[in-house]
Specification:
By secondary structure, the chain is α/β, with parallel strands linked by helices. It is 13% helix and 26% strand.
Length: 219
């Protein structure tokens, strides 16, 4: 029996974002009974909440979000349990290999690799955008070499918060591998076999887009 797990945070006023991003606001616009319908205005960065980074986010003249191959947005998933890494630590190749062995799932060709650190439980905490663990450049290269199609994280940034040169972003996006950040509820997948789906909006020439990410378990 098929089960669909919602892996996306809701977009709402006051949700966590980096200090350099505009404060998200979901505002009423047309309202009944003045109008025959209700609508809203949504004011957010293209990298707000659960979202996908296109290669053009860090690579000049690379594929923008409306050019991302939507066929690649449906991929077999590999969930790597990295909850043992400490807050603020760096995730390297050895951490990824250990997580692969524990789970029996591997970052093999065509897989969407989801890094489950457990950090999403701190979604409303003050340190959510400052204290998370992040993928190292070498860790990102390992995933590229393994043939990952998409890399997803349950943190606000795939890179370590202290990595000002964004090595993981640069390695993955230079290889044409989209990144999905701010995933949640990864622990509720509870299966080693699932399909990861994350479809971005076709925003012309944008570097990213919010996504409704899900895991489809079973047939």
């Amino acid at each position: 029996m098929r089960r669909v797990v919602d892996l996306a945070h809701s977009i709402e006023t006051g949700m966590p974002v980096f200090p350099t991003d505009p404060a998200p606001a979901v505002l009423p616009w047309a309202r009944m009974p003045v109008h025959p319908f209700d609508t809203e205005v949504v004011h957010i960065s293209s990298h707000t909440g659960t979202h996908m980074d296109a290669p053009s986010h860090f690579v000049r003249d690379a594929t923008a979000i409306d050019g991302v191959d939507v066929a690649g947005c449906f991929s077999p998933g590999a969930l790597l349990d990295l909850r043992g890494v400490a807050p603020g630590s760096t995730i390297g190749p050895s951490d990824l290999r250990d997580a692969e062995r524990r789970s029996g799932r591997y970052a093999s060709h065509g897989n969407a690799v989801l890094l489950w650190t457990g950090w999403s439980r701190r979604w409303r905490h003050r340190d959510y955008v400052t204290g998370y663990p992040g993928l190292s450049g070498d860790g990102a290269r390992y995933l590229v070499e393994r043939g990952a199609s998409v890399v997803g994280v349950d943190t606000p940034n795939v890179d370590h918060p202290g990595a000002g040169d964004f090595p993981a972003h640069r390695v993955l996006l230079n290889a044409g591998i989209p990144i999905v950040e701010n995933l949640t509820r990864l622990g509720t997948i509870r299966s080693s076999s699932f399909t990861f789906v994350a479809l971005p909006l076709a925003i012309a020439s944008a570097t990213g887009s919010p996504v409704r990410a899900v895991a489809v378990v079973g047939s």
